[in-house]
Sequence to fold (281 residues):
Amino acid sequence: MGFNPHLIKLNNQLIDITTPIVMGVVNVSPDSFYIGNRFSTDKGILQCVERILTNGGTIVDIGGYSTRPGAEQISHDEELKRVSESLIIILKKFPNAIISVDTFRSSVVRELVRNFPIAMVNDIGGGTLDDLMFQTIADLKLAYVLMHTRGNPQTMQNNTDYDNIIADVLHFLEKRLAQLRLLGVNDVICDLGFGFAKTLDQNYSLLKNMHIFKEMNVPILAGVSRKSMIYKTLNTTADKALNGTTAANMLALLGGASILRVHDVKEAMEAISIYTKFKNC
Fold:
């Protein structure tokens, strides 16, 4: 049976993504690049999740380790503590929330799945930062976001020398997607890795050529929200990059994105509504 790029299984629910959906960001790391979705209090975390869900977000993506360029390294135990404590309070109030965990550590995934209904792993390393990640995803039967990057958050911006950015990213994703398929992982979403080991121009080249990646026959996630590719282009800051984010999200939708990973769910949902109307006219 072939894979359906318009359906993903999350917590034993089949989610139809024929109309694109939104993944809302909850950062519980103190050094995330965008302060508007960086939380350290129970109240702040719950308010953020409530906004995501009431504004139409489908997936709540929780990260305890900032992966911005040059981010500080933290231990397994510290990352696990941050994410676990946030999940306890989130799932108490929102027990049906579909949870994605933003981590590149398979050990964190295994510990979390023992205690919480994790639906998806959003791995910025694409399996390159932990050799056990793919087998862990297969064993636990989780959905998986396979992202392209090079190096780690501390070194990635020194790894931007490509022969051909489009071909190189496509080859990376296709090769690692094949490895996941051999392990029996069905629910894979690909992320081109905007902002990870890429120059400003390379990011826009990928955005312009997103349609090429549809040949992989998997859903594509676009994570451009408030990133430097937007605020540097506009000569502004992350906290003033919402309008630019909406413009970039629309370009991603036109390029074939099925999931938008964002800090601002309401505005992303509005972009999807406009896109859907435009597409179906």
